[in-house]
């Protein structure tokens, strides 16, 4: 059985996703495949159930998060986004990236680094939101050109995710 | 030969006999066993009416004492009386060296052992004594044989600690249906009781471990969003803090194992008394026979424990962050574990979550109750039950790469079961072997993570560096246990390990101990093996018959059905007449014969789960 992740959840292949349908169907699928349902089954059925439940978990994770969903959609179009080395980044974004990084480094010397980190993370969040809504319209167009742009934006999104993670690690280190 | 009964399609198979299954809370300080009886989950008492079994084991020359009687002699026989053994489960010699425990540990090739008059014992063996005691209690009070157990473990237990717990159960002769995370068990007991949907934080501070889990209850599904904690932090540490303070006040040191035990007992008494009093008198008999008297008030106590409580709040913050949940979104905070009785803990948790925590359920019993409910479902007493638990792995799993770095394969807080593969390549020209080193933990350096296992993939065909494509697959099962396989994809060379923790018992060690146990109990090993295979055969027969009754008409043609039925007949015959080995063979044949059928059933159930949803409803 070869279903893509969207088909598995009987959802249309689209960046826009109905989160409540996704989670409801995820629960329904787990209800019928989870190993807890097979404790009295044969070893083969137990093994199968573990594999199916693992696959459903993986598919759910890939669709739930906007970055992973964008990467997955691009992969369905034959684009491997994780090979980021050979992609030309837009120079404005590269500049922005450096500025954000410096800003994060400066925060550690601020008088109230925890408060400054909070502001920083909120700024990252709003940038993430903005990129996600841009991705939404690019995937809707689904032309060669718009997919190329979507690829670039998902790399930017990936960068923001990493930066957010780093900011949160620093916050933890301060506590 | 007995004729096989095949039910009419559509007709339910014979009604299940109630199967006896229990939940066991194997705690640092106390353990409990609970079961579902007439639809209600209850904890079971011993002959004296006591529900809590102190997790203390005393080894005498030719006798083993478990529970209250052992606890009473802990101060007079500290070297042979082992308490808080949970702290040593799945731990290596280096891990426990620094702990203040007063036992004489022996370094061995596999697990460290504690020297007692009855010989050297491992933490797994000590725990198995506690489990065996509870097994006996359950079977005596319910007058039936146990079909399976759910054992709870701290959510933050790593692979080695989980495996050690499973080994202890095996040694005690228990069939483990599932290892269940303690906070998840508490959520089940609490959530089913109150029926409250939404986001719950479970704050579980026990005798030796701390867990925080954030989970969402929705339509009968308990979805753990994240978990964090410290598997070596609990009420014991409060006792140590008080005892160390007392020693300083009295001007003595705690080198003497007897004195140290008396101090810890007095510290624990004081801690418990301060729940309801502002000040407590202290009284200790020193090594020289003189008495020391003093007192401690709640202000002093709070000062001593505030640092420990603070150490629990950082994981709370991390868990919320990993779950993507803000403090305002948490509907309620449930307190679990005996140490949450300490008023200062409640105060600080209330402050952190900005709401009073729920303390109206018995924090000692709630975990065992939840485990019993899950055990009842898993053993098959409630086939139509809608409850489902979706748990996560607590710590990231990864593999060592060049330069002593860890490459994460499965990050923490990923829903289990989970399988993930990553590709690696060779680093030298003509390299024919690759060492796979599996690690668990959050840090980047190998040295800062826990080493779980090492194995080698050999016979890789010689190629230039970077040409081999080695796919390493991590599979974590529903118990949170890891299996790793490595495969070179151009040649198909394969190697795999069921991760046997670096600090675990070897399979043959467990076999040997089991054998010794049987000899001790004067049981016949062969008879035992035969009985086990017969039980397994019955289980397989029942499972396949039920599957046929449900789906044979829809999924099998006459020929396929005939093949399966004949393999079942052969299995039934073997089960009634043959040796353990032949039964096992017949089980394997039946399993192979039903392979396609099993796959078709799985596919059909996935389709059924989504029946009614079609793509066009969104278009």
Average of per-residue pLDDT values of chain A: 88
For this structure, the quaternary state is heterodimer
Structural class, judged by helices and strands of chain A? mainly alpha
C-alpha Rg of chain A (nearest Å): 20 Å
Shape of chain A: globular
Query: Approximately how much beta-strand content do the residues of chain A carry?
Result: under 5%
Quantity of strands of chain A, as a count: 0
Name the poorly predicted regions of chain A. none
Helix residue percentage of chain A:
over 70%
Main sheet: strands, sense, barrel of chain A: none
**What's the rounded overall pLDDT mean of chain B?**
86
Number of helices of chain B: 15
Largest sheet of chain B: 6 strands, mixed
Work out the largest interface and the residue count of each chain: A-B, 43 and 54 residues
Q: Calculate the terminal CA-CA distance of chain A, rounded to whole Å.
A: 49 Å
Strand content of chain B: 25-35%
Provide the structure class of chain B. Answer: alpha+beta
Instruction: Count up the helices of chain A.
Output: 7
Rg of chain B, Å, rounded: 26 Å
How would you describe the overall organization of this protein?
- The complex is a heterodimer of chains A (175) and B (619).
- In chain A, 74% of the residues lie in helices and 0% in strands.
- Chain A contains seven helices and no strands.
- Chain A has helices spanning 5-8, 19-33, 43-64, 66-76, 91-107, 113-141, 144-174.
- Chain A is globular.
- Chain B has 619 residues and is an alpha+beta fold.
- In chain B, 38% of the residues lie in helices and 25% in strands.
- Chain B has 15 helices and 27 strands.
- The radius of gyration of chain B is 26 Å and the shape is globular.
- Chains A and B meet through helix 2 and helix 3 of A and helix 8, strand 19, strand 22, helix 12 and helix 15 of B.
């Amino acid at each position: 059985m070869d279903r893509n992740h969207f088909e598995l959840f009987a959802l249309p292949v689209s960046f826009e996703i109905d989160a409540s349908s996704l989670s409801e169907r995820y629960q329904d699928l787990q209800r019928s495949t989870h190993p807890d349902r097979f404790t009295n089954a044969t070893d083969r059925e137990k093994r199968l159930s573990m594999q199916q439940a693992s696959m459903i978990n993986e598919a759910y994770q890939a669709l739930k998060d906007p970055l992973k969903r964008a990467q997955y959609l691009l992969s369905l179009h034959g684009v491997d986004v994780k090979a980021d080395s050979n992609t030309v980044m837009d120079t404005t974004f590269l500049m922005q990236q450096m500025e954000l990084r410096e800003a994060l480094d400066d925060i550690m010397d601020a008088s109230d680094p925890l408060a400054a980190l909070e502001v920083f993370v909120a700024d990252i969040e709003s940038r993430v939101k903005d990129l996600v809504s841009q991705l939404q319209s690019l995937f809707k167009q689904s032309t060669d050109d718009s997919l190329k742009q979507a690829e670039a934006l998902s790399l930017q999104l990936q960068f923001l995710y990493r930066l957010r993670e780093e900011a949160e690690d620093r916050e933890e280190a301060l506590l | 030969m007995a004729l096989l009964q095949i039910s009419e399609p559509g007709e339910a198979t014979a009604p299940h006999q109630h199967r006896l299954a229990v939940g066991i809370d194997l705690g640092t300080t106390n353990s409990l066993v609970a079961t579902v009886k007439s639809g209600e989950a209850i904890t079971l008492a011993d002959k004296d009416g006591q529900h809590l079994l102190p997790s203390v084991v005393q080894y005498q020359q030719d006798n083993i004492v478990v529970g209250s009687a052992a606890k009473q002699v802990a101060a007079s026989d500290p070297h042979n009386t082992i308490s808080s053994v949970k702290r040593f489960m799945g731990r290596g010699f280096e891990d426990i060296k620094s702990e203040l425990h007063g036992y004489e540990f022996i370094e061995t090739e596999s697990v460290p052992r504690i020297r007692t008059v009855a010989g050297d014992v491992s933490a797994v063996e000590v725990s198995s004594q506690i489990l065996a005691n509870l097994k006996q209690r359950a079977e005596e009070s319910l007058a039936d044989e146990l079909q399976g157990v759910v054992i709870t473990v701290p959510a933050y237990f790593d692979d080695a600690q989980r495996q050690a717990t499973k080994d202890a159960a095996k040694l005690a002769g228990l069939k483990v249906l599932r290892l269940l995370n303690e906070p998840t068990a508490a959520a089940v007991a609490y959530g089913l009781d109150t029926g409250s949907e939404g986001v719950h934080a479970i704050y579980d501070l026990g005798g030796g471990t701390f867990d925080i889990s954030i989970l969402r209850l929705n339509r009968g599904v308990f979805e753990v969003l994240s978990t964090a904690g410290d598997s070596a932090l609990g009420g014991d540490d409060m006792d140590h803090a008080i005892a160390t303070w007392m020693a300083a006040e009295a001007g003595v040191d705690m080198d003497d194992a007897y004195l140290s035990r008396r101090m810890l007992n007095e510290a624990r008494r004081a801690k418990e008394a301060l729940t309801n009093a502002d000040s407590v008198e202290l009284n200790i008999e020193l090594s020289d026979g003189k008495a020391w008297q003093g007192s401690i008030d709640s202000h002093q106590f709070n000062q001593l424990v505030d640092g420990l409580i603070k150490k629990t709040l950082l994981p709370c913050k991390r868990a919320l962050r990993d779950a993507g949940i803000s403090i305002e979104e948490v509907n309620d905070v449930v307190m679990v574990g005996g140490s949450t009785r300490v008023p200062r803990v409640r105060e600080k948790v209330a402050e952190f979550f900005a709401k009073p925590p729920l303390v109206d359920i018995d924090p000692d019993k709630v975990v065992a109750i939840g485990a019993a409910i899950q055990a009842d479902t898993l053993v098959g007493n409630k086939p139509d039950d809608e409850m489902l638990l979706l748990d996560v792995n607590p710590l990231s799993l990864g593999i060592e790469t060049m330069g002593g770095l860890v490459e994460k394969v499965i990050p923490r807080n990923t829903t289990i079961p989970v399988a993930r593969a990553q590709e690696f390549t060779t680093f030298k020209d003509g390299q024919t072997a690759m060492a796979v080193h599996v690690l668990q933990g959050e840090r980047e350096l190998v040295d800062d993570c826990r080493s779980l296992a090492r194995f080698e993939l050999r016979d890789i065909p010689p190629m230039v560096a970077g040409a081999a494509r080695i796919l390493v697959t991590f599979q974590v099962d529903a118990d949170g246990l890891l299996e790793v396989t490595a495969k070179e994809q151009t040649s198909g060379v394969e190697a795999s390990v069921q991760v046997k923790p670096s600090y675990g018992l070897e399979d043959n060690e467990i076999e040997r101990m089991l054998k010794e146990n049987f000899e001790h109990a004067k049981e016949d090993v062969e008879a035992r093996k035969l009985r086990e295979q017969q039980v397994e055969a019955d289980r397989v027969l029942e499972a396949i018959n039920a599957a046929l009754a449900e789906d044979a008409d829809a999924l099998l043609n006459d020929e396929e059905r005939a093949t399966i039925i004949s393999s079942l007949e052969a299995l039934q015959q073997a089960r009634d007449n043959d040796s353990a080995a032949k039964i096992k063979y017949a089980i394997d044949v039946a399993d192979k014969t039903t392979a396609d059928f099993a796959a078709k059933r799985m596919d059909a159930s996935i389709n059924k789960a989504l029946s009614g949803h079609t793509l066009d409803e969104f278009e």
